[in-house]
# Entry
Amino acid sequence: VERVKAEQPGIGFNAVTEEFVDIIKAGIADPAKVTRTALQNAASIGGMLLTTEALVADIPKKEPANAVPPGDMDY
# Structure
């Protein structure tokens, strides 16, 4: 992991040849395939949201902090 962090961007480990190579030139990571997969996943989630009849969302309510009474007040 440290070796991969030290390498230039785009350099990764090829497990088949056990070498550090440019992953795009070696055909390991195809930018078009990555983009296509991201779009497919986004469309899948969008379709799920459109066909789901209920969506759970949490909207936090801002509540004022409780006031601390002064120390000299007796009850």
The two ends are 64 Å apart (CA to CA). The longest strand covers residues 11-14.
